[in-house]
Amino acid sequence: xxxxxxxxxxxxxxxxxxxxxxxxxxxxxxxxxxxxxxxxxxxxxxxxxxxxxxxxxxxxxxxxxxxxxxxxxxxxxxxxxxxxxxxxxxxxxxxxxxxxxxxxxxxxxxxxxxxxxxxxxxxxxxxxxxxxxxxxxxxxxxxxxxxxxxxxxxxxxxxxx
Length: 161
Prior knowledge:
Oligomer: single chain
Low-confidence stretches: 1-9
Largest sheet: 9 strands, antiparallel
Distance between the termini: 34 Å
Mean pLDDT: 90
Number of strands: 9
Structural class: alpha+beta
Order of helices and strands: EEEHHEEEEEEH
Shape: globular
Strand content: over 45%
């Protein structure tokens, strides 16, 4: 299944339970890489499209073996948490992480995320391959909602700065 949404595309595969998503963003690879990996920039774009301020707490130790921990949600009683371990960093071209996330119910999942940043006409093609989803439904949610929302927020951040 290939889905084109908001200037990006998402490709899902049932056999491998991985997704592929991409979006051309209006900035250089360095600017997009930094927006995606810098804690202070993330704190802005995580909530840039929200009508009401919520909780956004992020720490980043950007080195191989380092972690990024993000906690966010509409209030302290409804928090999502994601911890990523950096496996590979090639600024501003490629980032590979192992991501363990949990939702407010306490359900957790661990996936592998490969993000690439390629210069193209009009900016940077940011592409994501995320694998290891436990079910096709969760994978499809990430393809149609989570990554589309992340791309929308990063794009809003890059155009408003």
